[in-house]
Amino acid sequence: NRRRARYRNRMRQSQMLIPTLRDVPAEAEVVSHQLLLRAGMIRQVARGIYDFLPLGVRVLRKVERIVREEMVRAGAQEVLLPAICPAELWQESGRWEKYGKELLRIKDRNGRDFCFGPTHEEVITDLVRRDVRSYRELPINLFQIQSKFRDEVRPRFGLMRGREFIMKDGYSFHVDRADCDREYENMFQAYRRIFDRCGLAYRPVEADTGAIGGSRSHEFQVLAESGEDAIVSCDACEYAANVEKAGIGVAASPASAAVTPLDEVATPGHRTIEEVSAFLKLPAERFIKTLLYVADDTVVVALVRGDHALSEAKLKDALGTPAVELAPETTVERVTGAPVGFAGPIGLRGSVRLLADQALAGITDAVTGANKADTHVRGVSASRDFATAELADLRVATAGDRCPRCAGHFVLQRGIEVGQVFSLGTKYSAALKATVSDAEGKERVLEMGCYGIGVTRTIAAAIEQNHDDAGIIWPMPLAPFQVVVVPVNIADERLRTTAERLYAELTARGVEVLLDDRDERPGVKFKDADLIGYPLRITVGTRALERAAVELKRRTEKAATEVPVAEVVARVAELVAAETTA
Ligand code: ATP
Ligand code: MG
């Protein structure tokens, strides 16, 4: 009991390290970064590397706990892999070369190469190939919650994009694709429960598989205007996807207009669609953008309408290749015979693969580069001038586009990617030769899924979604404390004893409560309470106490209500329970 009393003692603001700041720190660009610093939850140690202070750790542990409970509930087992990984494993998968500068490489005293793990497909596959030998031990789903390191180019958004950050990464192994698909669905549902329990507004969206590779993927996006990712969702059905990936329904093709003759025009120095469209006084949708890529050593020429953006994710899908790269200037000059900025589909040299976005089907009288310096060509028609192009869905989706599943249209939203689930196929298991013998004694390469959650990014996303001018507005399940008790004058014996009593009773009811016992003016305490963002505040003041009452205020509401002292504990416990699900 003495230990317990000591523990309780620490939940007093006067004793805790909560260094709140009045001013917005200059280095913080996004709201979550500003508020985490101002609320005394984190401090920067180096670019993209942070200390977590006591309040920050409390929030962190809450996210971790929800993630851990739901992973275990879904049948996954917790492991802990090393942060420092030997280069050999990464060489086996080929990622030692491919991962680039984001991979922090280090040497030990003997000059052996290691990296600080940015993700752990190699390490987990190595574990499983050594210790799982038979199909009878499958399926297996292993996860960990651990610090990762990615040497990001621009680690400037606090916990949103750190260099060192905490991730939950999980990996599952299966004898066949069907079982892997079943687990994918299982994880998808677990992720739904996790973000529901965090109290966040989010959307699962179809996503590109990116550098991790694989065949199928969903991102979980916390909706926030400040989000880095653009997502579209259908206004009529459940379909939602990253704009890079969203399938676009084909609208009825317009009645085809007459094919007009080609006509070259001088466009000296005007290269971009904006420049040429201003110069020729024609709207961007009358143009065809011609982009040159290299994929699998082949030059790929992709055409999209001038007002559309090419999606590299879709281009990769259309080509069935894992990576595309913009062609270097020398390649552009060789293939078009012109400097960069004047490419078009007519008269390309050498062998190229030509693809056109489906929106260009049937286009007539369009403008594009003439493959000649300072020249564009008008009157371009799909049926005459690039009839051999493969038609595909190549462009980034936007508001108003047709849903691929129904007659609905897309609404555009912004989101923060807090999690992603992938079906990886055999990419890593084949490279690392992770096999088991099946029922017939035949060796089988394992099918693999992987499932990540940005634990620290989820904290930032929660703030980006829930804040106002005064500070953070924590959803109840993530709040560092569910309620703060503020005696307006700590020197006043009556106020102090009432506050102490409420603190003890709330604690006994299992409510997470902080007592602001600092010898500060009420204004200072209220400002800090709003900044830190406790969902509930109990104010113990002289006048109300004369009526045997205190004030109860929700962080989301402007006004407080007076509640009898005798009832406030039960009322608070009720509110907390209503907004927390186990
Ligand atoms: P992004 O596209 O934002 O760089 P990613 O797709 O490369 O992220 P994953 O490899 O899918 O990231 O990692 C799993 C999760 O880890 C992500 O969904 C994200 O929430 C989180 N995460 C990734 N990079 C960072 C980072 N630099 N800082 C904080 N969290 C991160
Ligand atoms: Mg991702």
List keywords for this structure.
582 residues, five-stranded mixed beta sheet, binds adenosine-5'-triphosphate, binds magnesium ion, 29% helix, alpha+beta, nine-stranded mixed beta sheet
Describe this structure in a few short sentences.
With 582 residues, the protein is an alpha+beta fold. It has 17 helices and 31 strands. Helix 14 runs parallel beside helix 17.
Q: What's the overall average pLDDT, rounded?
A: 94
Oligomer: single chain
Helix segment count?
A: 17
The total strand number stands at 31
Beta content comes to: 25-35%
Biggest sheet, open or closed, and with what strands and sense?
A: 9 strands, mixed
Rg for CA atoms: 29 Å
User: What global shape is seen?
Assistant: globular
Which small compounds were modeled alongside the protein? Answer: adenosine-5'-triphosphate, magnesium ion
Report helical residue fraction. 25-40%
> What structural category arises from helix and sheet content?
alpha+beta
Unreliable residue runs:
none
The span between the termini is: 27 Å
Word description of this protein:
The chain has about 575 residues and is of the alpha+beta class. Helix content is about 30%, strand content about 30%. Strands 3, 7, 8, 9, 10, 11, 12, 21 and 24 form a nine-stranded mixed β-sheet that branches. Strands 16-14-15-17-20 form a five-stranded mixed β-sheet, sandwiched between helices. A hairpin with a 5-residue loop joins strand 5 and strand 6. Helix 3 runs antiparallel to helix 7 (about 175-195), helix 3 (about 55-75) packs across helix 13 and helix 14 (about 495-510) runs parallel beside helix 17. Bound molecules: adenosine-5'-triphosphate and magnesium ion. The site of magnesium ion has 2 residues, from strand 21.
